[in-house]
Amino acid sequence: MKFHQLFKAALHEPKKLAAFRLLPLGKVVKYIFMFVLLTAAVSFVKFALTADEVISGTDMPVEELKGIGPLLYPAAFVLQFLIATVYFYVKASIAALAGLGFVKIRGKRGEYRHLWRTAAISLTVPTLILMAANLLPAGVPYASALSWAAAFVYIWMAVGYYPKAAPKKRTAHNSPSRS
């Protein structure tokens, strides 16, 4: 699947989110990096537009600022990309752990590796919520809590399409025969 197909399905198709558990890990990681690159680029643009205000508020001499100026923007982009990547992976891992609980509650069959793939792609909407909170001047009230809630809702809906857990086999206990 292409990036835009994964993105579109992640927005409103929980059945496909559940099917994404079978995607190769490389495809999921590629999606994550493309999505993180997109969010880091948006964040960097906001930084670039407000950097002059931040720099003008410092007490550094103009000569020193001119010296670090060419290094400031690439370093800021790399740093934003690295922080966003680590944040995304940690959030996907925590969401997958919650997904293990959802699997047990709903009586479905799933492993952590499957839930991690589903969680990683289901973080699309929560990440868009955080991006909107960052870009809007007024922000989004309780954006972080709303983001986590959206992640859990998407994973909960996707787990509903996981296969049912196999019934537990009862072993018949043969009592010793009386002769």
TrEMBL record:
Membrane is among the record's keywords: yes
Keywords on record: Membrane, Transmembrane, Transmembrane helix
Highest rank taxon of the organism: Bacteria
Keyword hit for Nuclease: no
Matching InterPro entries: DUF1189
Chain segments annotated as transmembrane: 31-51, 71-103, 115-136, 142-162
Protein name: DUF1189 domain-containing protein
